Amino acid sequence: MKLPELNLGQLRTFVAAAERMSFVSAAETVHRSQAAVSMQISKLEASLDQPLFERHTRRIALTLAGETLLPYARQLLQIEHAALSALRTQEVVGKVVLGAPDDYVLSLLPPVLERFAMRFAKVEIELVCLQSILLKPLLKKGAIDLAFVTRGEGLDGTLIRREPMVWVGAEKHAAWKKNPLPIALYEKGCVAREQTLAALEKSARPYCATYSSPSLLGILAMVEAGLAIAALAECSAPAHLVRLGKADGLKSIEPLDIVLIKGRKNSSPAAECLANEIMQALSSKN
Predict the structure, then answer these.
(1) Structural element, H or E, at residue 148
(2) What pTM does this model have?
(3) Up-side HSE of residue 198: CA atoms within 13 Å toward CB?
(4) What is the C-alpha to C-alpha distance for residues 217 and 241, in angstroms, rounded to an integer?
(5) pLDDT higher than threshold 90 for residue 219
(6) Is the bond leading into 180 cis (omega within 30 degrees of zero)?
């Protein structure tokens, strides 16, 4: 007995019709005429020797055979897409310069960059690790292709996620019990610094800025040593630090908007692929 062969083009049309329960809508989806859609479905049914749809005057419905075929058809189309995508990645070559602050580099980007490197082996990534505000002039000059940064003045792009900020301190030192409250801050111009200061102004506690740094590691060193507390993006706050809040006389802080900005001068297939990887992996909608 000769088994029928499945045609991917016909299966694509079948899935479109099954998901929309309409040959008219399926025609729009697969960019064919309604007559061509009907013909493809008929050819598929003929090859399987089974009807896939019950046809009524104003609607269609899946038969038992159609319901059985649908999940397999979807899987075959997904495999086709994955195979073509895998082949396309081999064609992408070049270099991408990505700019991001160190707290995002350490906490959010490693799995994304690892996966990207495996998929796009011929693309070289150069990482520029600076505060968001310091990456702005590099974007304008075209020195970086992508910036994964905190939204701020002159830094607006595609919103990736809203990252909460948390107050942290070292438990064995309990610096949050000191008066005035010692605070480690990011340098001037940083959105995180501005939002931290805004929350402090709303708090009832007197404070003093004991340390200012452009580096997450510098701020963490001050907190670990018990010389200050700090407000950090939740993604970069070490788990062993104590989370502080209302009970400690501290107001909540506005979250940070993390955006992805594409350089206007250096658009390339490699940069587009990395941008898509970041958006798919880190978007808060996922």
Answers:
(1) strand 146-150
(2) 0.67
(3) 11
(4) 14
(5) yes
(6) yes
